[in-house]
Inverse folding.
């Protein structure tokens, strides 16, 4: 009797806990998931999120212009691209958009620049850096075309 009651309670608890999360990624990206889809900022954060957190580069290639896709393919892996092109490797990383960089209305343009702040660790050492990302609107979607190293660091 007690065993049946305990099993029922545990089973009910598991059902309730599994209902709390559907396992799907939220629509927003960025530090607080609040960047609107279809903006250059969203595309830039999504690009780097896939670059630093995915095993393969398929999603990164989908978010790249033809010029950037050619460059990515030359390096074969995300880690090689991080090391050799960006000179910015992390074991754990958080990315945040510089919100003060919004000088234009992206829905009326076909080019944009976004500054991304990186904070994370590499071999137990804290690293902070930033990159300027130049994007092009291709077929109605923002694609990463170029990544610039900060001139002042």
């Amino acid at each position: 009797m007690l065993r049946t009651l305990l099993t029922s309670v545990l089973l009910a608890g598991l059902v309730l806990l599994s209902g709390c999360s559907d396992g799907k990624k939220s629509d927003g990206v960025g530090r607080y998931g609040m960047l609107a889809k279809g903006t250059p900022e969203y595309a830039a954060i999504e690009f780097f999120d896939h670059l630093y957190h995915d095993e393969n580069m398929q999603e990164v290639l989908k978010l790249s212009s033809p010029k950037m896709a050619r460059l990515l393919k030359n390096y074969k892996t995300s880690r090689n691209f991080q090391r050799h092109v960006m000179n910015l490797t992390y074991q754990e990383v958080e990315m945040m958009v510089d919100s003060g960089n919004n000088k234009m209305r992206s829905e009326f343009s076909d080019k944009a620049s976004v500054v991304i702040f990186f904070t994370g660790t590499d071999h137990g050492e804290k690293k902070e850096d930033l990159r300027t990302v130049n994007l092009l609107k291709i077929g109605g979607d923002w694609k990463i075309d170029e990544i610039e190293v900060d001139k002042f660091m």
In short: The first strand starts at residue 92 and ends at 97. Residues 44 and 144 are 7 Å apart (CA to CA).
